[in-house]
Each structure stands twice: as structure tokens, then as C-alpha cells.
């Protein structure tokens, strides 16, 4: 089964297939009944605006519909139902599942219990591979392609699942990756090990100015208060690594600024009006990219259903 759990398992060809399909969808939107009758189960055990709504928009624009589990506190998880049982039940109602969960590894575990495609929409501080696909799409459209980019990734590198997925994917496109963070929020050891094993070009910095003038892309992330086990640890780093319009005077004119959003205060609102800002476009790209991904996955299951029907006859 084609689950989408981690960017580590997406090849360069896989990524290019999705991005090419997304570009084709933007140029020539598919028929509104392309996947009529198909249902996408949305299982969000953590808050979301962009991921949940863009998946819902994507399946609806393909002619299908979304089945939303709703808030966790109105689901049977509150009665003690396990994640494994929850996804096993919901797979009987839907053709594919989208799962967001606060525990790292939850999507891997859940995928072992279902036969429909399961898409990881964020597992704690682990991975967020569909975010990476739309991040790469945004870079490809605005930074002159994906080959040999110099990318700065700044903020919460320790708990940032968008960062972990993006770092794996950028390695497949031979990017130079510059990680900018306080010492306490450096990349996790496991991710550093994987990047090293994959031959990634990686440097770490305390100060954005060490690298800002070289960057094609500056990817800013939020310091995620909800992930810190200790509020004092959060307070010690909150408010560091903000950028404003003055910061970007030291960047190349072509440098694009991205952020997976939501932002708190790491990008000053004055940046929004500059040519550098691409984070709202990035969020909007979630729809064509998730349409492309669902289109590919549902096409595959269409084929299987046709084969099953033939076998039965
Ligand atoms: N970027 C992202 O995952 O946003 P949401 O948390 O709003 O889904």
C-alpha cells in the first residue's frame, strides 16, 4: 500500500511526479467528477487550519468528499479507544486517511493497521511530508527550480516536523542546507545522522547573518510552545530569530522567504508586502499539491478495485 509517512522514503522521482501533476492541475484543472464518490477520512488529533482545510478542498475539487472525525473531545478517543482501533474503523468508511497526531511515530504505527493509503499530516515532532511537497512546489515555482539551491532553515529545528521532512527532501536535490537556531533547538541527533548518511551538505549557525546573503530560500519556523516539556525552556528561546524588512535588506533580492505557518511573531507583518514573501502562496499551494497526491493515490486504488472486480467475476 502507498502510505505517505516520511519524506525519507520519497525518492526524487516520486517528488517530481507529484509536483508535475500539481503543476498540470493548476494549468488545467481536472473534471469536477474525476473522483466522484471517493471519501477522504480526516483524523486530526491536534489542531490544524491549513492541512485539514487544504486536504478537504483538494478532495472536494476532485469530486470526492471529506469525512472529518471532528474534534478529539467529541470522538470516542475520549472513551479510551486506541489509535489503532480508531483508524481500523475509519478505513471502513473512507478510501484514504489523513492522520495528524501529537505522538512521533503515530502515523507509522497506524499505517500497520489499515489497507487504504494513510497520509501523515504531522506526527508530533516527527515528520510532515505533505507539507514538504508543497514547500518544494513553492520553491520550484519561485526559486528557479530545485537543483542546487542554497536554503536557510531557521527557528525550531528540534521539534519542527516540517523542518525534518524538508531536510530529507532537499538532500535529494543536492541543496546546501544551513540550519540557524539557538544551541538548544538544533536538529535532533537522528535527523543529523540520516542527513550525514545521505551525504547532505549541512552547516549549522547561531546567527542568520553568517549565511543570509548567500540564500536562495529562507525558511522560517515558529518556536512551538506546545512541544516544550518545560515552559522555562520555551521562554529562554521565545522571540529569538525574528526577521523584519530591515533584516531582508541584507538578503539577495531574489531570496524567497517561506514559513509553513502559523506564525506568531517570527516574521514581522511589514515583510508581507515585500517581494521576498511567499508564505501565503505556499499555504495556497497546499490545494493543488494535495490534489495531485490524492489523484495519484486514488488512481492506484481505482486500478486495484478494477482488478478485484475482475478477480471476483
Ligand atoms: N503548516 C501546517 O501544518 O499548518 P496547520 O497546522 O494549520 O495545518
From TrEMBL:
L-aspartate binds at residues 79, 161, 222. Carbamoyl phosphate binds at residues 50-51, 100, 128, 131, 261-262. Residues 3-141 form the Aspartate/ornithine carbamoyltransferase carbamoyl-P binding domain. It holds the Pfam family OTCace. Belongs to the aspartate/ornithine carbamoyltransferase superfamily. ATCase family. Catalyzes the condensation of carbamoyl phosphate and aspartate to form carbamoyl aspartate and inorganic phosphate, the committed step in the de novo pyrimidine nucleotide biosynthesis pathway. Heterooligomer of catalytic and regulatory chains. Its EC number is 2.1.3.2. Pathway: Pyrimidine metabolism; UMP biosynthesis via de novo pathway; (S)-dihydroorotate from bicarbonate: step 2/3. NCBIfam families: asp_carb_tr, PRK00856.1. This is Aspartate carbamoyltransferase. Keywords: Pyrimidine biosynthesis, Transferase. The keyword Transferase applies. It catalyses: carbamoyl phosphate + L-aspartate = N-carbamoyl-L-aspartate + phosphate + H(+). GO terms for molecular function: amino acid binding; aspartate carbamoyltransferase activity. Residues 148-296 form the Aspartate/ornithine carbamoyltransferase Asp/Orn-binding domain. GO terms for biological process: 'de novo' pyrimidine nucleobase biosynthetic process; 'de novo' UMP biosynthetic process; amino acid metabolic process.
Amino acid at each position: 500500500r502507498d502510505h505517505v509517512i516520511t519524506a525519507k522514503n520519497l525518492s526524487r522521482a516520486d517528488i517530481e511526479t507529484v509536483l508535475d501533476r500539481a503543476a498540470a492541475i493548476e494549468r488545467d484543472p481536472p473534471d469536477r467528477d474525476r473522483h466522484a464518490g471517493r471519501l477522504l477520512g480526516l483524523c486530526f488529533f491536534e489542531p490544524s487550519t491549513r492541512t485539514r482545510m487544504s486536504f478537504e478542498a483538494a478532495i472536494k475539487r476532485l469530486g470526492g468528499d471529506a469525512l472529518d472525525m471532528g474534534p478529539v473531545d467529541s470522538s470516542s478517543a475520549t472513551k479510551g479507544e486506541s489509535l489503532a482501533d480508531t483508524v481500523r474503523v475509519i478505513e471502513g468508511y473512507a478510501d484514504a486517511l489523513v492522520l495528524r497526531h501529537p505522538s512521533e511515530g503515530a502515523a507509522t504505527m497506524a499505517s500497520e493497521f489499515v489497507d487504504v493509503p494513510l497520509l501523515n499530516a504531522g506526527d508530533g515532532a516527527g515528520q510532515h511530508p505533505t507539507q514538504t511537497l508543497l514547500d518544494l512546489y513553492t520553491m520550484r515555482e519561485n526559486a528557479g527550480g530545485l537543483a542546487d539551491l542554497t536554503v536557510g532553515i531557521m527557528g525550531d529545528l528540534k521539534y519542527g516536523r516540517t523542518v525534518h521532512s524538508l531536510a530529507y527532501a532537499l538532500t535529494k536535490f543536492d541543496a546546501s542546507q544551513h540550519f540557524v537556531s539557538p544551541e538548544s533547538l538544533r536538529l535532533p541527533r537522528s535527523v543529523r545522522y540520516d542527513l550525514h548518511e545521505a551525504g547532505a551538505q549541512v552547516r549549522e549557525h547561531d546567527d542568520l547573518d553568517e549565511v543570509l546573503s548567500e540564500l536562495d530560500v529562507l525558511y522560517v519556523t515558529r518556536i512551538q510552545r506546545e512541544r516544550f516539556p518545560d515552559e522555562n525552556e520555551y521562554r529562554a528561546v521565545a522571540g529569538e530569530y525574528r526577521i523584519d524588512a530591515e533584516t531582508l535588506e541584507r538578503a539577495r533580492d531574489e531570496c524567497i522567504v517561506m514559513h509553513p505557518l502559523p506564525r506568531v511573531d517570527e516574521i514581522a507583518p511589514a515583510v508581507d508586502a515585500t517581494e521576498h514573501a511567499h508564505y501565503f502562496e505556499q499555504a495556497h499551494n497546499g490545494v493543488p499539491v494535495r490534489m495531485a497526491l490524492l489523484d495519484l493515490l486514488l488512481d492506484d486504488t481505482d486500478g486495484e478495485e478494477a482488478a478485484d472486480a475482475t478477480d471476483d467475476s
